[in-house]
Amino acid sequence: MIEQINNIAFAVILVIIIYIILRILFSETQKNTLTNHQPITSTNTEQKIKDLELQCQRLREELKQQSQQLKTDFQNETFTQLQTLLSNYPTIKKMALTKPDLPAKNLVSLFTSLDNLIINWGYTAIGEIWEQVNYNPQLHQADSDDIQEGELVYIRFIGYQNGEQVLYPAKVSRTLPAGFDHNN
User: Fold this and answer.
1) CB 32 within 8 A of CB 38
2) For residue 138, what are the domain limits?
3) DSSP notation for the chain
4) Does any domain span residue 160?
5) Residue 137 phi/psi, 5° resolution?
6) Phi and psi at residue 176, in whole multiples of 5°?
7) Most buried among 27, 72, 87, 160, by the most CB within 10 A?
């Protein structure tokens, strides 16, 4: 995403620079022709081109710095929002490996920061776990190639979307995992 922004910004800057060059050349030509009846000197034009090249290089550097700053800001903001989860994850992992009979509901509250991040980004879930829905290939990824559009399926793993853009389709199946009831 940041790379696309950089490419667009670079293209806009180049168009502006070309416009400025043409505007300066045209303006100087008109001014010299009207006032002195003399054409622009090549030295004057070469200096203006050098100045524009320096300005272009400076703008590229600024863009590069802005890109790095955007990346750093994004990482810092995301880390802040996930800080609780990231600091608890090693403990959760160790507890799960050493105590496999530990009830999972004891760990659920540790994922609140992840829920908050999804909300802050404005993402919405595609369905709910074990919800029965009509299969929609634009929103769902079936676990079998023979599932037809409109067929009733269960959401096994939710997906996410940002507005109308599907970021990650929900994983669906005709059945629920063995031993699980969708009414619970």
Assistant:
1) yes
2) 123-184
3) -HHHHHHHHHHHHHHHHHHHHHHHHHHHHHHHHHHTS-PPPHHHHHHHHHHHHHHHHHHHHHHHHHHHHHHHHHHHHHHHHHHHHHHHHHHHHHHHHH-TTS-GGGTGGGGHHHHHHHHHTT-EEES-TT-EEE--TTTEEESSTTPPTT-EEEEEE-EEEETTEEEEPEEEESSPPTT--TT-
4) yes
5) -60, -15
6) -90, 165
7) 160
Q: What is the pLDDT of residues 73-87, one digit of tens each?
A: 888 888 787 777 777
Does residue 161 lie in a domain region? yes
Does residue 22 sit within a domain? yes
Q: Tally the domains of the chain.
A: 2
Query: Do residue 88 and residue 10 come from a single domain?
Result: yes
pTM recorded for the entire structure: 0.56
Query: Are 6 and 90 part of one and the same domain?
Result: yes
**pLDDT tens-digit series, residues 150-170:** 999 999 999 999 999 999 999
Statement to judge: residues 87 and 138 lie in one domain: no
The CA distance from 173 to 53, in Å, is 59
